[in-house]
Amino acid sequence: MSRTLLRALLFALLAALVACADAGPQRKKRRGVDRMVFRDAPEENAYEKIPLPPQRVRVQARAHTATVGNVAGVANFQMPAPLCQPPKNQPSRTIGPTTDGQLQDACRIPGQGPGYIAVSPNAFGTDNTVALLEMAAAQVNRQFEGVPAIVIGAISAENGGFLKPHKSHQSGRDVDIAYMRTTKGQPKRFELTDASNLDAERTWAFLEALLSTGEVGWIFMDYEIQALLYEALLDNGWTEQALAPVFQYPAGATVPRGVIRHATGHADHFHVRFRCPEADKPDCVD
Ligand SMILES: [Zn+2]
């Protein structure tokens, strides 16, 4: 056999191997949303393992203020009922911390709903997680006309537990969400976001809807994107003082301040961690 032929055969074999490795289970096309393009982003995260602060932060959108305090049973906020697919009767139960947890009778967020698409097969959350995501997406949908749907990525596996490649996402309370961007067309996956394409107004509207409930524990977000949002908010009437309990920026990317914290690997999506539902305490650990 000539050396050229041998080399050609080796190349063909390698190409076949690469094609096989690429054809994982996520490439299967499912009803509603094309899941081929979605990949979980690897997360390297110093904050993943730190417990939540006991004090809640709540943003009051219209007043441009944020309050810190024990607002258990936040005034004026009624947890909506989630829309799960398929519908279920048993309430969900979340157990343990997000880095070593389980999930029972999970609510699977539908592949699409008002203002969002859910593109990960790991679309299982607590009832509260799904209800809050659906509420915030619907609110943005009402507020902004003709914009693309928000891309929701991984939440948890059906029964929780370790979810590759994450350190957390184990108990139905962590969610990866794409930044809202100014680019045209419907995105179906996470894409690197920066000053040239961040839709700060819409991204903040979504975050604000979540933060107004007092149910958010942490949000992990690239420090530079925090800066873009923060500066946009100052231009819109927010004060540095009001934003201090919310943003780590401008204190520094390693300073323990704010609900929104820098974590590497979060320039194409942000990560929201919800607090334990009252009904699941003390088994659920913040
Ligand atoms: Zn995440």
Give a topology summary.
Elements lengths: L2 H20 L33 E5 L4 E5 L23 E3 L6 E3 L2 E2 L3 E2 L2 E3 L5 E2 L1 H17 L6 E3 L21 E5 L21 H12 L4 E5 L2 H12 L5 H4 L16 E2 L7 E6 L12
Parallel strand pairs: 7-9, 11-12
Antiparallel strand pairs: 1-2, 3-4, 5-8, 6-7, 10-13, 11-13
Class in CATH?
Alpha Beta
Low-confidence stretches: 16-36
CATH fold-type name: Muramoyl-pentapeptide Carboxypeptidase, domain 2
Question: Globular, elongated, flat, extended or rod-shaped: what is the shape?
Answer: globular
Q: Which radius of gyration do the C-alpha atoms yield? A: 20 Å
Rounded mean pLDDT is 85
Number of helices: 5
User: How many β-strand stretches?
Assistant: 13
State the separation between the terminal residues, measured CA to CA: 65 Å
Bound compounds, please? Answer: zinc ion
Give an overview of the whole structure.
The longest helix has 20 residues, at 3-22. The chain has a single domain, classed as Muramoyl-pentapeptide Carboxypeptidase, domain 2, CATH 3.30.1380. The N and C termini lie far apart (65 Å). The protein has a four-stranded mixed beta sheet, with no helix packed on it. A three-stranded mixed beta sheet has the order 6-7-9. The chain has 286 residues and is an alpha+beta fold. The model is unreliable at 16-36 (pLDDT under 50). It is built from five helices and 13 strands. The relative contact order is 0.17. A hairpin with a 2-residue loop joins strand 6 and strand 7 (116-118). The site of zinc ion has 6 residues, from strand 10.
